[in-house]
Amino acid sequence: MIWFQLQSLMGSYPLALRGLGMTIALSGISLVLGTILGFALGVLRTSGSRWLDSAIGLWVDLIRGTPFLVQIFLIFFILPELGIELDAFTAGIIALTNLAACFICEIVAAGIRSVPTGQVEAALASGLSQWQRMRQVVLPQAMRVSLPPLVGQYVLLIKDSSVVSAIGLTDLTRVGWLVVQRVPNGLLVFAIVGIGYFVVCYPLILLARRLERRMSAAHGEVQL
Amino acid sequence: MIEFRGVNKWFGALHVLKDITLSVEPREVVVVCGPSGSGKSTLIRCINGLETIKDGDLVVDGQRLGDRATNMTELRTEIGFVFQAFNLYPHKTALENVTLAPIHVRKIARAEAEASGREMLAKVGLGDKFNAYPSELSGGQQQRVAIARCLCMRPKIMLFDEPTSALDPEMISEVLDVMVGVAEEGMTMMVVTHEMGFARKVAQRVVFMDAGAVVETGTPEEFFSDPKTDRSRAFLSKILRH
Amino acid sequence: MLENFSFRTIVEYLPLFGQGFAATLWLSIVSFAGALAVGIILCAMNLQRSRLLQLPAKIYIDAIRATPLLAQLYFLYFGLPRLGVVLPELFVGILALALNSGAYIAEIIRAGILSISRGQVEAGIASGMTYAQRMRLVILPQAIRVTIPPLLGQAIVLVKDSALLSLISVAELTRAGQLLASDRFMPAEGFLTTAACYLVLYYGLKSLAVFSARWLGVRPIGSRT
């Protein structure tokens, strides 16, 4: 029985590979775009303009306050009504990029706020321009604080990409859903799907942990 | 009361205690001093088992540490320990801090524990701070609560690990005064400190440590007026220069 | 364009959204209670010296954190019948949410316990307390305060995650939106209303988190130095 199912699963091998490819492409592209956008938003949020800060803050709240599934549905079903035709892949990229940008914006903003004002004052005193202060003094220090949660956020992003299967994109989770219709062994099929995600996510989790440990060691925090 | 015989300890490859032989008699007050990293904190942390020793014998109150027959938890109730960073429980008031162990470890009735807690807090000059939380107290007051917390357990020995080095200068004397009081009541004390005034006033002996070894011991008079080794002379010239 | 946006249809469907809102609320509460239980057990196992207890907890936590909730949900939904366990979709959903959030809660509690400084532990040891006494009297009372705000954060995540239950046709908030979208071909009305309902829950929990952090911060944790 199991042997037969395994054989049948072997037949789905190309499909599974395509699904994994789709998951990696989706999360890879939106990860890069989301990071760029998120950094820009994070810097803008701390630029001193109250108006910008609260506008971005409101958007971040709206995105953080609603399920990603609902956001995907909104983008996929409503943008066409506004005259913007888009396929499921583009809709998925837009939704994931937006989600990533919002979370990364908060991480970057928190990192920037964690840099002591004395640092900015020292940079001011030595005559650096605003851009130079950001680039040479603030961001390098903010990055040290932001890096561990940033990597953690990437893991969440890859996992969230599975939700895009709901609008029919054939990613890893959707492949599992398709295969389980033919091979009625949900434990086996979704264990394999899980392994697919694990292989991608776990190294990142380990990396995030290592960065975190290095940082808390640098700050001399005491452990139990 | 406390006896080190050929005690050695390593942190990894670092030899932090080198062949320590030293004994403290009942009612004796011993001050331990030396440059930072000399192993003096490690030395007194071994006495109540916050650190374990690698070889040699350490006998405290007649019990050999590391023996199966020695119940560390019980032995610790006889040893008060005052930390550099106070380590008061931030979620408990001053009175709750001093009564926690008597009630739960010594199993003394709450009313009785609170009565003696009030008495001890009053004795260290904090009769008006029973219900204050540590965050509402100054460093000097917190350290005095920490001393009262130990006294409430009616210990046979009190250990002090640099009790004044986290304090602002104006608070040091209020803590030292309390310690002098405790010493004058005949407590067996081992104190890691650089407060030489305290050493002169109450210590019977000063132990000078460097690089994990006891380099010199003597009465405060001998040690301060006539240090015998180059290392102790160098150390004294540094701390007494100002 | 959205010029035919129909508020009237939304009003017509309000009872459905009301039911969905209530369902999301109570299934989240039940799942969160389950997740707390799972989290406490996992954390207790993880803090033991015995590797026999520690290792299964660590593996479980890592496996949950490295895989998406949707895959876990399908694993149970398609897998449980295979083991002869046939549960209503709602129970499968609650189980998946509790098992998933439990892993994150275990880490939150652990971080709370580890945030208590070494000095606190040593003060307990020095006054002759046993491990159990130190935990009960010194560490946990302080750790619980630290963990309440992040636990509320996890509750927010759980409420949002519960939207995935609509994909195994549990009748909750997102499902209500889907019904309006497919019955009347009004996705904008359906999903914007759904989003608005989630925002009510989000802002409620968020202000609770902010309030609790401020309230717990009245007596700052940690003495000087």
UniProtKB/TrEMBL annotation, chain A:
<feature type="transmembrane region" description="Helical">
    <location>
        <begin position="91"/>
        <end position="112"/>
    </location>
</feature>
<feature type="domain" description="ABC transmembrane type-1">
    <location>
        <begin position="20"/>
        <end position="208"/>
    </location>
</feature>
<dbReference type="GO" id="GO:0022857">
    <property type="term" value="F:transmembrane transporter activity"/>
</dbReference>
<dbReference type="GO" id="GO:0006865">
    <property type="term" value="P:amino acid transport"/>
</dbReference>
<keyword id="KW-0813">Transport</keyword>
<feature type="transmembrane region" description="Helical">
    <location>
        <begin position="187"/>
        <end position="208"/>
    </location>
</feature>
<keyword id="KW-1003">Cell membrane</keyword>
<keyword id="KW-0472">Membrane</keyword>
<keyword id="KW-1133">Transmembrane helix</keyword>
<dbReference type="InterPro" id="IPR043429">
    <property type="entry name" value="ArtM/GltK/GlnP/TcyL/YhdX-like"/>
</dbReference>
<dbReference type="InterPro" id="IPR035906">
    <property type="entry name" value="MetI-like_sf"/>
</dbReference>
<feature type="transmembrane region" description="Helical">
    <location>
        <begin position="20"/>
        <end position="44"/>
    </location>
</feature>
<protein>
    <submittedName>
        <fullName>Polar amino acid transport system permease protein</fullName>
    </submittedName>
</protein>
<dbReference type="GO" id="GO:0043190">
    <property type="term" value="C:ATP-binding cassette (ABC) transporter complex"/>
</dbReference>
<dbReference type="InterPro" id="IPR010065">
    <property type="entry name" value="AA_ABC_transptr_permease_3TM"/>
</dbReference>
From TrEMBL, chain B:
<dbReference type="InterPro" id="IPR050086">
    <property type="entry name" value="MetN_ABC_transporter-like"/>
</dbReference>
<dbReference type="InterPro" id="IPR003439">
    <property type="entry name" value="ABC_transporter-like_ATP-bd"/>
</dbReference>
<dbReference type="InterPro" id="IPR003593">
    <property type="entry name" value="AAA+_ATPase"/>
</dbReference>
<dbReference type="GO" id="GO:0015424">
    <property type="term" value="F:ABC-type amino acid transporter activity"/>
</dbReference>
<comment type="similarity">
    <text>Belongs to the ABC transporter superfamily.</text>
</comment>
<dbReference type="InterPro" id="IPR027417">
    <property type="entry name" value="P-loop_NTPase"/>
</dbReference>
<dbReference type="GO" id="GO:0016887">
    <property type="term" value="F:ATP hydrolysis activity"/>
</dbReference>
<keyword id="KW-0813">Transport</keyword>
<feature type="domain" description="ABC transporter">
    <location>
        <begin position="2"/>
        <end position="236"/>
    </location>
</feature>
<keyword id="KW-0547">Nucleotide-binding</keyword>
<dbReference type="Pfam" id="PF00005">
    <property type="entry name" value="ABC_tran"/>
</dbReference>
<dbReference type="InterPro" id="IPR017871">
    <property type="entry name" value="ABC_transporter-like_CS"/>
</dbReference>
<dbReference type="InterPro" id="IPR030679">
    <property type="entry name" value="ABC_ATPase_HisP-typ"/>
</dbReference>
<keyword id="KW-0067">ATP-binding</keyword>
<dbReference type="GO" id="GO:0005524">
    <property type="term" value="F:ATP binding"/>
</dbReference>
From TrEMBL, chain C:
<feature type="transmembrane region" description="Helical">
    <location>
        <begin position="185"/>
        <end position="205"/>
    </location>
</feature>
<dbReference type="Pfam" id="PF00528">
    <property type="entry name" value="BPD_transp_1"/>
</dbReference>
<dbReference type="GO" id="GO:0022857">
    <property type="term" value="F:transmembrane transporter activity"/>
</dbReference>
<comment type="function">
    <text>Part of the binding-protein-dependent transport system for glutamine; probably responsible for the translocation of the substrate across the membrane.</text>
</comment>
<dbReference type="InterPro" id="IPR000515">
    <property type="entry name" value="MetI-like"/>
</dbReference>
<dbReference type="GO" id="GO:0043190">
    <property type="term" value="C:ATP-binding cassette (ABC) transporter complex"/>
</dbReference>
<comment type="similarity">
    <text>Belongs to the binding-protein-dependent transport system permease family. HisMQ subfamily.</text>
</comment>
<feature type="transmembrane region" description="Helical">
    <location>
        <begin position="59"/>
        <end position="78"/>
    </location>
</feature>
<dbReference type="InterPro" id="IPR010065">
    <property type="entry name" value="AA_ABC_transptr_permease_3TM"/>
</dbReference>
<dbReference type="InterPro" id="IPR035906">
    <property type="entry name" value="MetI-like_sf"/>
</dbReference>
<dbReference type="InterPro" id="IPR043429">
    <property type="entry name" value="ArtM/GltK/GlnP/TcyL/YhdX-like"/>
</dbReference>
<dbReference type="GO" id="GO:0006865">
    <property type="term" value="P:amino acid transport"/>
</dbReference>
<feature type="transmembrane region" description="Helical">
    <location>
        <begin position="20"/>
        <end position="47"/>
    </location>
</feature>
<keyword id="KW-1003">Cell membrane</keyword>
<keyword id="KW-0813">Transport</keyword>
